[in-house]
Amino acid sequence: MDKLSLQNPLFATYVVAATIMILKAVSMSWLTVVRMMSVKGGFRSPEDLKKTPLNPAPDPKQLEPDERVERIRRIQLNDLENLPFFLVAGFLYVMTDPSLLLAQVLLYGYVVSRLLHFAAYMTARTHDTRATLWTVGSLILIFITVRTLIAALAS
Which domain holds residue 141? Predict the structure, then answer.
């Protein structure tokens, strides 16, 4: 069976986890726009103050930071700082042919930790809560990366 086939349960596990994370990251841009439109603020560029069908009553205050919009931008930045490592590390880890159960626990565990981190950030939970959820994902990344390195060095 080809390692890079959806018929391979290991690769399929990675594909599910990776696509959920990609969709989550992409949805942050949409969430930012929805929030900007709902609060009619948090815009960043001077041209955003031009009168348009989507902004029929421009106001210079729309360029001021809005905490509700900035919170989503911070979540998106956190994704951009973390998800590329997962996408690469997860792919390389699957190439080491780990046990299916361990791969599922680790890859899906990472996804769950990131989704819970998102929920904690969106609902303004304490830094301790967010840091704990981030740490779970980070430890998973470290584990799969080290296991991949060990496998590569042993081959």
Answer: 9-154
